[in-house]
């Protein structure tokens, strides 16, 4: 018990010293550009923080503010540094890299194409995203392994906990109150009337484009709910067969160049598709996506007005 408390105290003391040194570096303005912190031979880059925050958010995790997030990374990096020096912890770099490749493909399966996924996760290339996943998984593995080694066989009695608390209670941080709640959630169903409304909106856009009142690109920028292509006028280029979902691809390839489809339903909503050109087995196409979601009370009020 005493041995483990001393070890944890030593770790916290070293971590505090590192934090002081880091603060001193920042105040002197001597940090190497792009490097936020260095723990042993473990480096935390500015890009690491941004990539890990974006990835965590897209995975549905609660992300604290940037300072707290950085503190958690630095704290974990200390464990990682010690873990990699610990000969009793297995080096699983190859297995982690392979798992990161598989996780990348699993995430990609939830998107219509790779570009949409990369835009959603805010990565420029597939290499950047795979590398970020590998870093996160590697850090988690080594951090958990070292934490397990430190706390292994720690046997604490209730009396020892009470004695420790009484001795250090003035130094211990306050813990906020927490509550557990239960809830019942009911989601509004999409009606046939609202489906018809979405399709009629797309048909009206098609009429305006064909009559010359509007351009496909401009309507896509304003109305399309596909974040991966809206800012580019709805355009996807050099699309290979099998890249898009089947209803989208079938509709696009049945069009003549410049022709616009009727509303096409996919798992993402309803699309208005324009075939731009065919290039061998590949093609360029624009689309406007309206998601098939029930109208909110606010939107219903706006429609009535």
TrEMBL record:
Positions of the PpiC domain: 176-277
Pfam families: Rotamase
InterPro entries noted in UniProt: PPIase_dom_sf (IPR046357), PPIase_PpiC (IPR000297), PrsA_foldase (IPR050245), Trigger_fact/SurA_dom_sf (IPR027304)
SUPFAM superfamilies from the UniProt entry: FKBP-like (SSF54534), Triger factor/SurA peptide-binding domain-like (SSF109998)
Membrane-traversing stretches: none
Molecular function terms from GO: peptidyl-prolyl cis-trans isomerase activity
Signal peptide: 1-24
Record keywords, A-Z: Isomerase, Rotamase, Signal
The name this protein goes by in its record: Peptidylprolyl isomerase
Annotated source species: Bergeyella porcorum
